[in-house]
Amino acid sequence: MGSATSRWLSGFCRLTAQQNPREAATAIAKDHDAPAIVHDASLAYLIHVQTKNGGRLRDRRWEWVIHAFGEQGPELAERLAATVRA
Predict the structure, then answer these.
(1) pLDDT 10s digits, 45-55
(2) What is the Cα–Cα distance from 80 to 82, expressed in whole angstroms?
(3) How far apart (Å, rounded) are the C-alpha atoms in residues 14 and 17?
(4) Phi, psi at residue 59, to the nearest 5°?
(5) Total-model pTM
(6) Which region, left, alpha or beta, applies to residue 40 given φ > 0 means left and ψ of -120 to 50 means alpha?
(7) What gap in Å lies between CA 59 and CA 73, rounded to an integer?
């Protein structure tokens, strides 16, 4: 088993939304939150989006999506994705 520090995701936080996605800078639903990583002026956060609607629950489809901002955004997105896959 790895060390305690290898189990922690440096810069982890929960990003909350106070506005509807159409009014805000993020795609996070109002009054919800999303796992995120921040470092300096960069950010990456994970949300799920519906890709297929259906009358029945089993007909609906969802995908996980990571949004990234800033110079280090792509690197943070890769770290967040790797953590989710682990």
Answers:
(1) 998 888 898 88
(2) 5
(3) 10
(4) -90, -10
(5) 0.76
(6) left
(7) 33
